Amino acid sequence: MTNKSKHHFETRAIHVGNHSNIRTGSVSPAIHLTSTYEQDGLGRDRGFDYSRAINPTRQRLESNIATLEEGKHAISFSSGMAAITALFQTLKQCDHIIVSRNVYGGTYRVFDQVLSNHGLTFDFVDTRDLNSIESSIRPETKILFLETPTNPLLEISDISAISSICKEHNIIVAVDNTFMSPYGQRPISLGADIVMHSGTKHIGGHSDIISGLLITSNKSLADQLYFIQKAAGAVPSPFDCWLLLRSTKTLSLRVQQSAENAKEIAEWLTNQPIVTEVIYPGLESHPQHKLAKMQQLTPNGDVIYGSLISIRLKDEKARDQFIEKINIFTFAESLGGVESLVCVPYDMTHGSVPDDMKIKMGITPTLIRLSIGIENVNDLKRDLKFALQELIVSE
Ligand SMILES: Cc1ncc(COP(=O)(O)O)c(C=O)c1O
């Protein structure tokens, strides 16, 4: 198959990086499970010398992910957190970073407890508000790190408007696109400089891999990141790269179905009186519903609101009973897999964020996050109905 960049997303997802084996014809390419490579003489390798630096399976994954995010280069890591850390290893002491205020708790933790010890300064800002961004910019601001939608409050920031502001100030815009996946949002096409993914989520999609990815079209940034990948060494195993390549083949189907399920469930939840609040970008009640409609588009141009829903119950007793009764949903951290999950961000994903900060943002102990999978939507609704009904009965 030639000219793959001209093909549609779904076709590129299956074919880029996945050539059948020349010698055997095996349609699924081999995994290069090797740490080192035979060299033909001193200074005469065959393009490969050591797998921390370069590996054919990893290269195939990186070409696949780059095309899906509409970037030129992808750099893969052993986890989402390793990818974020690598991005900030491109900075120097005293550099300043602006961050979306309710980013994933682990992102907050690495900024607050690791990278700030190395001389980087972070400001957590409500990036929905362009004025707050402008007033936080300093001469030493180097990166604006956006999460949109945020985890778990699903706050949405305007990637295109923020990128325009940052270009004027020579600030790199990095977007954690984990929640939408490249099928649901492509920040580089909206003006961002770099995209980050926890590949653990939608891209892996089966809750069996920990992975991280950075994608950019900026060659000099890509070169720095390839260097950090090799020098710091948080690389993914060839087997994980192969699994991820297998997963992206079905990314569009999985993300589409989980988002359709989520929309139906979110609308249904708004009619359940026992649920005091439903947060979902596809609901007109969501404060950035209009922005979501413009920004969150599939590669075919259709609006997609994602597969995450956050709900609030009236008190902690109700929360605990709900968790106890829910059955098809698994009580676990993470999101973006084929199976539906439920978690309490206050204690779980955001456990490392100070309590007063969580409460100020609205991450309360009764906030429950649902990651909707691709099970039959009627079964999921029945499961939720059962768990919620038990609350009504016990009132
Ligand atoms: C939005 C977001 N970004 C980054 C991460 C970190 O990724 P990983 O767990 O793969 O290190 C997570 C993990 O939950 C996440 O939800």
Protein architecture, described:
With 395 residues, the protein is of the alpha/beta class. Helix content is 37%, strand content 15%. The strands form two sheets. The protein has a seven-stranded mixed beta sheet with strand order 1-7-6-5-4-2-3, with helices on both faces. The protein has a five-stranded mixed beta sheet with strand order 8-9-12-11-10. The chain is globular. The model has no long low-confidence stretch (mean pLDDT 96). The site of pyridoxal-5'-phosphate has 15 residues, from helix 3 and helix 4. Pyridoxal-5'-phosphate binds next to helix 3 and helix 4.
Q: What value does the Rg take, in angstroms?
A: 21 Å
**Helix content bin:** 25-40%
Largest sheet composition:
7 strands, mixed
> Segments where pLDDT lies below 50 for 5+ residues?
none
Might you state the CATH topology name of the largest domain? Aspartate Aminotransferase, domain 2
Instruction: List cofactors, ions and other ligands.
Output: pyridoxal-5'-phosphate
CATH architecture of the largest domain: 3-Layer(aba) Sandwich
Query: Which class best fits the helix and strand makeup?
Result: alpha/beta
Q: Return the CATH class of the largest domain.
A: Alpha Beta
Report strand order across the widest sheet: 1-7-6-5-4-2-3
In sequence order, what are the helices and strands, one letter per element? HHEHEHEHEHEHEEHHHEHEHEEHEH
Per DSSP, the total helix count is: 14
Number of strands: 12
CATH-defined superfamily of the largest domain: Type I PLP-dependent aspartate aminotransferase-like (Major domain)
Summed over residues and divided by their number, the pLDDT gives a mean of 96
* Backbone shape: globular
